[in-house]
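Practice problem: Phospholipid/glycerol acyltransferase domain-containing protein
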Amino acid sequence: MADSEPQRPAPQSQSTSSPSATKELYPMSNWKYDTFLWTTSVLVDLFFREVHPRGSWKVPRTGPVLFVAAPHANQFVDALILQRTLRNEAQRRVSLLIAQKSVHGFIGFASRQVGSVPVGRAQDYAKPGQGTIYLPDPLNDPTLIRGIGTDFEKQAEVGGMLFLPSAKGQTGSSVDIAKILGPNEIRIKRPLRGKLAMTQLTGRDDIDDQGNLGLMDINGPKDGYEGTTYKLAPRIDQSEVYRAVFDRLKSGGCVGIFPEGGSHDRTELLPLKAGVAIMALGTLTEAPDCGLKIVPVGMNYFHAHKFRSRAVIEFGQPLEVPKRLVEMYKNNERREAVGQVLDMVHQALSAVTVSTPDYDTLMVIQAARRLYNPTGKKLPLPVIVELNRRLALGYERYKNDERIVQLKKSVNDYNRQLRYLNIRDHQVQYGKMSWPKVVFTLFYRLAKLLALSAGVLPGLILFSPVFIATKIISKKKAKAALAGSSVKIQGKDVMATWKIMVAMFFAPVLYFFYTAITALLVWQDRLGGRVPEWVPIWAVFVAGFIFFPTITFAALRFGEVGMDILKSLRPLALCIFPTSSYSLNQLRERRAELSEQVTRVINTLGPEMFPDFEHTRLVGDSGRAAAAASAVETAAAAAASRAPTRPSMPYHVSSGTSSPAAEGAESPPQAPLTRRSTTRSSRAIPRNESFSNIGKIQLFATRPPSRSRSRSSSAGGGPVMGGFPVTGFTSLDSKEGFDEANRRIRQAMKERGEIRRRKRVAKEAGLEDESSDDEEGSVDSLEESAGSLRDYEEARKEK
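Answer key — structure tokens:
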């Protein structure tokens, strides 16, 4: 959306508007909408390995809803995924706002099928301005812009926009033009802020990070400075756009917008455009009782531009615009009202997205998350996103703390060592494997890779022209998008879109070519006599359009597994050679130390930032779980010693499951098993998750078991799928574990009641025995054990 506020039609009451008299500007056809989404869903499933919805139960099933989605990291693919998720999970159809410059060709056709609203954006019409500009008086008159060799009277217009160039990965600033004073002077609506903008307009070196001048006794730009280049955009009239949005919302429909104004590949949210606030306030001005809700949507990707990547689409709590802001908007206090709504939306989006100031910080946070998570423990994607978000918030708050500074330095050093060895974090644990086991595992995986190659090579060879074309064209389009944008870093946000579009065009052409060649061979000599004479030529075309896509799909699924295995071979090869094996072992020891350091810092600062840190922790504290399990075993042993006539019931708690022996059966004595001693399997070297799971889910599925359990609508699937508050993962996180905890609590309470009854009877009879003190101690121990399990009981009820 444009930054400037357009001239809107005069407000009118909803009751006075006549549906028959008002023609919808951008109508939506339900059957076209559903047909288009059903068709394109195949493309989403092929490009993405997993798309997890989270919190979709929060989406209102009726009434007007304004969806605000960010970050806009995947151009047109974001829109497709959002519409598909809302249709499948919440049964809502949504009209998205799309850039006017994109409404042509296939994108224009697709946008019309789903009722999208085209929007003209100022940046799409921006052109380089003549000459250069600077700030002549930044202290006393910061809204005055002066040019050298400019012609503002011909090139600029009031209500248009002025754009400064981006530099060093930073977004260039933009501002509205308030007045044209002459060919060489204009006045802007507000002063430009920030170090980059002030440096560009003054050329001075004494500017801090907030854009303030250091030497206040010196005014004006640097001596000899000739200014910076710039762009100018005309004024864009958005009255039709707002009218279409108001009508859709007032009729109870849904509208979606990416409030950053365009797609990008940055790691932080861009400043939100005013359009989203104007839409909400304008709708409520015309229909105060329509019940409009604003729902934030976080578009969280893992390598968004790569084939077979993953995504988590998270919906936040619906917002309602306070009535006082609507009154302010009606009473011409629009700037203040719009600003407060934008603040509300930004805070809501921050709760469902992961935002970091730069890419290096994001890499540190993701590394810290892996180090904090016990090695080998598979976390669902929504939990990974939530951990990244909390760590990002913690870093933003404590980034100047000496512990965080030192920890960031250590994690960066660890990441550099991983890049030097060209391995991944989870592969560091391969260094603890014995040499014979390494050799056996290497050859075993090589054998699996060779077996999978039989299913991969035919489709890979046949489909290789499409792979090559998608890679070349997507990189070319990324370069073009980067050259024409002031916010992109590498232009990766357009790559997924072009990969899908190129594949959509070239794949059918390629299949037709192969089928035509086959039909020609059949027509000439019946394919060497292999095809009977009674088979018609048209049947060859039908069979070809079934056979060749099937071969491609099989290659895709087997190739996905094969790539996982191929990536696991390098660390195994490193373990064979003594020099590289030593480096890997050193790195493994360093990782263990760094993991303890990360865990200690998080467990120290976490409770300071999150008062309910222990209750909502996403990764269980193995030390606390071990203590709780040990207390339970001690209490059970004490109870058994006081009740010799009761059949023994040996059991143990292991990773949330219980294994009670048959009642009355004798069992050999064994030492109590704690959580710490039963997680070796989870800390062991993980097998190739895709291959081990290939026969368990459908035919070629590669989804790891823990992730497949979490893949569901956010109305179910796990304790973390429904949003906050989130119950922490503990050692008793399964149904059997909670049932066992309940049984122990009830048994402990029964034992306590029996002991107290005996004491009361003995006291009344004057026969207080010497064991009363010991029994009282046992009662306290049982109460302590029951208390340690009370959290599990509460979690069980919630589950």
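Discussion: Confidence is low (pLDDT under 50) at residues 1-21, 639-733, 767-799. Students who identified this feature from the tokens alone can consider the problem solved.
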